[in-house]
Structures are given as C-alpha cells and as structure tokens.
Amino acid sequence: MWRWTAGNGVSWHFLTIAGEAGESISAIEAMWRLELGKSRGFRSVKVQARIGETKWSTSCFPNKEGGWLLPVKAAVRKAEGIAEGDEVRVALDL
Length: 94
Fold this sequence. Notes:
The protein is an alpha+beta fold. The chain has helices spanning 19-36, 74-80; strands spanning 2-5, 11-17, 45-51, 54-62, 68-71, 91-93. A hairpin with a 5-residue loop joins strand 1 and strand 2. The two termini are 21 Å apart. InterPro entries: AF2212/PG0164-like_sf, DUF1905. This is DUF1905 domain-containing protein.
C-alpha cells in the first residue's frame, strides 16, 4: 500500500493491481468500451473489493505506469490494521 498526497495536503492510499490481475481488468475495460462505444470517467472500472473481512464498493483506475490503482479508504485500513508500506492481498469482483 502506498500514499499519494495532493498539492493541498490531502492524501489517498492505493494498492497497485499489476501483472495478470491488472491485465484482466484492462481486458474487461476494453471489452466494455467496445460494447458501449465509450468508457466510464477516467476509464474507471467499478469493483467490489475485499481485504480480510472488510468488503466495499469502489472503482479501479488505470495507472500511467501500467496496471490499475485501487483506492483504499481509511475505514478499511483501520478495520484491517493496514498502513502505508504494507503488502496487502485483495479480492476483486468486477
């Protein structure tokens, strides 16, 4: 897990989804784009995410460096005892 801080000091925590998992999300996003003739805002993909026992709805966003970014809200981090720098396993349903 890593943290990105905006110029105004607001921080967001993310997991990077890369490798086969990231390629799968890219393939699904491309298929939806072809079927619908357009993509969602920022090419985002709605997902149901689960870390440990905590489930939530969010969106993954394409990463400029490859793969996808999954935002992890404070309530999830607190419930699962995870922080910046931790290696985290996440389950995603698209």
